[in-house]
Write a structure and sequence with these properties.
- The chain is mainly beta.
- The protein has two domains: about 70 residues, no CATH class; about 55 residues.
- A four-stranded antiparallel β-sheet has the order 1-5-7-6, covered by helices on one side.
- A hairpin with a 5-residue loop joins β3 and β4.
- It is elongated, with a radius of gyration of 21 Å.
- The protein starts with 5 loop residues before the first strand and ends in a 7-residue tail after the last strand.
Length: about 140
């Protein structure tokens, strides 16, 4: 298996805030505000603002909004995603399924097998806290 593990360099509490304005005057277009945890890449919250709510938001420092979209896996917030992978040529000694099983046995949470022109690529992902990062 590959020894190269990539991890985000974000610090605990780092977030990305994205605000997008409606792209047209068509009825039903909303501005959108989204906050994403940079360590895990999990979107913490996303809200659509109606035209009236957008005006309130721009005019005041605090606006009560409803209809927020919350994360499907909130337990990942504050964790880092680590990614690693192995490339296997056609006719390699190990099958992609064997490599997948090795990653899963080593504690990787999800493993994906991709077909390439030269064979297969096995990509493993897991989410760790800062004290687990060296494992």
């Amino acid at each position: 298996m590959s020894e190269q593990i990539t991890t985000t360099d974000a610090a605990p509490g780092d977030v990305s805030v994205q605000f997008s304005f409606p792209v047209s005057n068509t009825e039903g277009r909303y501005a959108q505000l989204a906050v994403t945890d940079r360590m895990s890449g999990v979107q913490i919250v996303r809200v659509n603002l109606s035209p009236e709510e957008l005006v309130e938001f721009l005019a005041h420092t605090s606006v009560r909004l409803s209809g927020a979209v919350l994360p499907k896996r909130p337990e990942l917030i504050g964790r880092r995603q680590q990614t690693t992978g192995t490339s296997l040529r056609h006719g390699a000694d190990h099958t992609p399924e064997q490599v997948r099983d090795e990653y899963l046995a080593a504690g990787w949470e999800s493993v994906q097998i991709q077909t390439t022109n030269y064979g297969h690529r096995v990509v493993a992902r897991r989410w760790v806290t800062d004290d687990q990062q060296g494992e």
